Amino acid sequence: MSLVPAWIFPGQGTLPSLPWPDTALARRLIAAARESRLDLPALLCESDAPARSRTRIAQPLILVDCLLKADDLRQAGLACHAVAGHSLGEYPALVACGVLDPLDALRIVIHRGSLMDDVAGGMMAIIKLDTAAVEELCRRSERRVVVANRNSPKQTVISGESDALSEVAAWATSAGGRAIRLAVSGPFHSPLMSDAERRLRTTIQSCRFEDPVVPVVSSVTGESVRSGKRLRELMMSQMTSSVEWMSALQGLRSEGVTHAVEVGPGAVLAGIGRRNEAELTYLSYEEAKEWANSNAESPSSQAVPEESEERL
User: Fold this and answer.
1) Catalytically annotated residue among 81, 86, 111, 189
2) Is residue 186 domain-resident?
3) Could you give the dihedral angle defined by the CA atoms of residues 185, 10, 16 and 155, in that order, rounded to the nearest 10 degrees?
4) Is residue 189 annotated as part of the catalytic site, yes or no?
5) Domain with 164 in it: what CATH number?
6) In 3-state terms, the chain is what percent helix, strand and coil (to 5)?
7) List 87, 114, 159, 190, catalytic entry
8) Claim to verify: residue 196 and residue 265 sit in the same structural domain
9) Global pTM?
């Protein structure tokens, strides 16, 4: 079977834990972060997990990890046919396809993480209930909670005021679902992020957005985008828009993609996909790197490895 890979980039979740390679790109990113008073290598080794998980720290760490892994896969000869990113992951996706310069992406994400860290509220994953049922529960909350991520038919993330989240979680449990509070510091992808989104727009507007060299499937709309101008518009509304991950996966399939390679720390997106998606094969970064290193010919004409067992 031929491999037509997309690179998919995770959002704020699993943090990187291994030292980064000493590459030219790594040195550029680390030096730029230090100008913003972020010592990323020291933070990468920080033993205080809650401190590393703070949004203003976690987002730059995850971005840099994604960028370095993408660079590594490219050096190994594994190209991508399309890209998509989940929330924060849209920034390394835009770098991977030539839309954003890596240093511009880092500058935006440092500002983004700082702004998002200052908004009160939270997020919660609701599993075992379909999205329509979760949407109905959110309507009962009088818009104090909204659907933030449509990740799969049975995993929906809600976002909003903390007390309202607890109320919706109780309703969801009574309806046969399960609610899991996410380890994030704010109500991301909800109207509560409006002021932060407005303030981030100035930084986004100051950066150059080129047309992508491969299609970008937006997780805001699920559309395949080939215009840097359109991508800038989407990113300026991203913080208050829901993450339409199921639609993004459909967009990747429409581009002829057969395999989705998760480029970043962990394998959260691969885990979700393997549980819910029959049409795409999912590979972690490690699996993709191993496969690329073991095949001398072009990845688009080679057989691919069997999927590994579920690890999430």
Assistant:
1) 189
2) no
3) 60
4) yes
5) 3.30.70.250
6) 45, 15, 40
7) 87
8) yes
9) 0.92
